[in-house]
């Protein structure tokens, strides 16, 4: 199987796993900023340790400033996204953050010199329609949640545009280790605040244990480890293709909801998932040709 297809399948799998993140955000009783801070530290520590064990921890001097900027933008992206999830509906938050692929389709040819084509734009529009069919944002919109969602979408596009060339130069492991460390340091004041929010006196009851397990999964698996493979995949794919394949995340949310929340998708949602998958196949197959 060609490397491009392998990278696309890995990226789609990661995006599908990330579709569970809204469920965790809604279930864990922490403010958005503290939840992001806990996620970043739980993700940064094991990946940084992984990089040191492999001897892949010496960040080239020329990349330091870029990685710091990327880490700051990453912290802003997740803070905005989680704030949107907390203050508006999951559907609206997901549709807003996934305006990012539209920005990528417009900016990638200009910033990364990646060739654009009509087929890519068709795939972007198809995937966007699919997400709207899945999420179908309606009532529940708030000014704060909408603004936060737009910031999350713009910052996601910036993360991919800045991070892809760095990942190609230094590798996914080193980039994931240091960008998360920088982002975690940015969010440290909220991480400290989160410690005071934890009901330590209730640490032994099942609900508190459930929250801790969800935090560990969110941080170690869905942030740290998955980001290493995310950047490995992104470095091998055009940024526009990355954006379209990442539509798997909101599309998968309807499947997770059906499995864990007994929310059976209707025909429109099923059609939306099919459109997203088709669009992802289109961009990868088109780039392969």
Q: What is the average per-residue confidence, as pLDDT, rounded to a whole number? A: 80
Gyration radius over CA = 18 Å
Query: What sort of overall outline do the alpha carbons produce when their principal axes are compared?
Result: globular
Give the count of structural domains. 1
Elements, N to C (H/E): HHHHHHHHHHHHHH
What is the helix content? Answer: over 70%
Extract low-pLDDT stretches.
Answer: none
Which percent band covers the strand fraction?
under 5%
What does it look like?
There is one protein chain. By secondary structure, this protein is mostly helical. Helices cover 81% and strands 0% of the residues. α4 (61-87) packs antiparallel against α8 (143-170), α7 (118-135) runs antiparallel to α14 and α8 (143-170) packs antiparallel against α9 (172-186).
Which terms summarize this structure?
mainly alpha; 289 residues; 81% helix; 0% strand; 14 helices
TL;DR?
The chain has 289 residues and is mainly alpha-helical. 81% of the residues lie in helices and 0% in strands. It has one domain.
What's the layout of helices and strands?
Elements: H1 3-18, H2 21-27, H3 32-53, H4 61-87, H5 90-97, H6 100-111, H7 118-135, H8 143-170, H9 172-186, H10 188-197, H11 206-234, H12 239-245, H13 248-260, H14 267-288
Helix pairs in contact: 1-11, 1-13, 3-4, 3-9, 3-10, 3-11, 4-5, 4-8, 4-9, 5-7, 5-8, 6-8, 6-12, 7-12, 7-14, 8-9, 9-11, 12-14, 13-14
């Amino acid at each position: 199987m060609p490397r491009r297809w392998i990278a696309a399948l890995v990226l789609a799998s990661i995006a599908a796993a990330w579709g569970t993140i809204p469920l965790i955000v809604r279930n864990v009783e922490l403010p958005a900023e503290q939840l992001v801070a806990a996620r970043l530290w739980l993700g940064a520590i094991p990946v940084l340790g992984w990089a040191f064990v492999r001897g892949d921890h010496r960040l080239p001097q020329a990349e330091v400033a870029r990685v710091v900027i990327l880490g700051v933008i990453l912290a802003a992206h997740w803070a905005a996204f989680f704030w949107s999830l907390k203050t508006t509906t999951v559907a609206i938050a997901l549709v807003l953050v996934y305006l990012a692929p539209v920005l990528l389709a417009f900016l990638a040819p200009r910033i990364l010199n990646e060739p654009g084509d009509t087929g890519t734009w068709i795939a972007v529009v198809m995937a966007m329609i699919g997400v709207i069919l899945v999420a179908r944002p309606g009532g529940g919109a708030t000014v704060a949640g909408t603004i936060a969602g737009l910031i999350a979408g713009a910052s996601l596009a910036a993360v991919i545009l800045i991070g892809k060339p760095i990942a190609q130069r230094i590798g996914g492991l080193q980039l994931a280790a240091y960008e998360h460390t920088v982002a975690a340091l940015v969010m440290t004041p909220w991480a400290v605040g989160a410690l005071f929010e934890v009901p330590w006196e209730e640490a032994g009851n099942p609900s508190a244990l459930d929250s801790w397990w969800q935090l560990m999964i969110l941080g170690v698996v869905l942030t740290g480890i998955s980001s290493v493979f995310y950047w490995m995949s992104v470095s091998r794919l055009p940024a526009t293709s990355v954006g379209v394949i990442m539509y798997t995340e909101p599309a998968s949310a309807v499947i997770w909801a059906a499995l864990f929340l007994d929310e059976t998708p209707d025909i429109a949602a099923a059609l939306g998932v099919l459109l997203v998958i088709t669009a992802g196949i289109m961009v990868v197959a088109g780039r392969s040709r």
